[in-house]
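TA notes. Do not distribute before section.
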Amino acid sequence: MKKPSLSAALAQKQPATPVAPEQTPTAKPKDGRITTTLRIEPERLEALKIIAAKNRVKVNDLLLDGAAHILALHGHKI
């Protein structure tokens, strides 16, 4: 059987395929934080992972503690 040409395929009446309504992504609850990106050398990240594992915390927690420490050194209390 011969494969139909593009023009023949376009000329055929085909039932419209039902389009599913777009689902909006579930909005995450606002917690007042902003997501950002940090570029860090692999060696430093590895060291942070080791420290985080020893303290049973996440690397993110260490970074937030470090940011709080720097802010406190400069007189910012948040």
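Switch to the second chain here.
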Amino acid sequence: MGRPKKTKINLNKNSLQDFMQEIYNDCVNVMNSARKELNERKSRAEIEDINDESMIGKVNNDTLKIIEGTIDRKLALAKLQSQIVETDNKDTETTTNDGGSLSDDDKSLLRDLFKEQKEKNNIDYDLD
């Protein structure tokens, strides 16, 4: 069993990085299970007519959309994390501020990620 999910999120670098790591791990798990299902489906498929091929194609397309969505989330996390590290580096050059600042787009992305995780895991996150 994995470690417990983080439900209290402080808008600071360490708390956000922990939360982003959880999202990244969830994305990896979803992507791996989708790939496994896709590969199993390919090996089991017994196509007898065009309808079978059409049905398998639709299911495979849905699976590929899931994989694409997880890749998009992982890229968004990487972008966000690089911006947090970049602003933290700028802050440490001028002051010893640990908070860092986020743009409105970054905050919007974080809200979307919190909302997705809340709906997916039925966990109410407490934001500070």
